[in-house]
Amino acid sequence: MKSLLSGTWLRRFGRSSAGRWELAGVLFCAALLTSLKAADLPNSGSSPASTPLQTEMSDTATRLELAKVLTYGKRYAEAIEAYREVLAAEPDNIEAKIGLSEVLYWSGSTEAAAAILKGVPEDKLDEKRKLMLADLLIAKKDYEPALKIFSAYLEHNQGDLAVRLKMADVQSWMKRYSEAIANYEVILKARPQDRQVRRKYGMVLSWAGQNEKAAEQLRKSLNE
Question: pTM of this prediction?
Fold first, then answer.
């Protein structure tokens, strides 16, 4: 340090107080960089860097992930087997129950899917799964609980006309004509050019004994 201060560095920065402070700052930065480089060098006995996965995946988590991957590839039989293996070890695993019910639904086993999904607490189902359960219940002609799901959903999603149409159809099948008619009218107000909805509307008016109005709507659907 003494040789640095007495030679070239003093000539560069000068002997004034300001120059000495500037020189001190340069020397401090140089020392800091040297220490950082030394810290970056691995010790000969250090362990290798950690992998991206800092925690181990359990067998359950791995099987669930496998089931999802198989489902994405539409390998439904294998996905069902993977979900059932999870449930064999953990019968109350909600994620496995929901996943299994979805795969069964997509593979055409609607009754089995409905049976599993009905066993899942309602507060564990998101809106998508609740609507899927409603579709499964309709397939089983279990209309009343399906209507309850649709009604609760439409309280917060009034503009979902597809769900409202399903609800109107179910109400018409249950001979709850006034409720069905009211829902068809909501849909036609938003989609007045929808000929198929207007024809359903006309049919239900006929079933409800409103023949003149039914004829008017059916005729209108032919002219649109």
Answer: 0.65
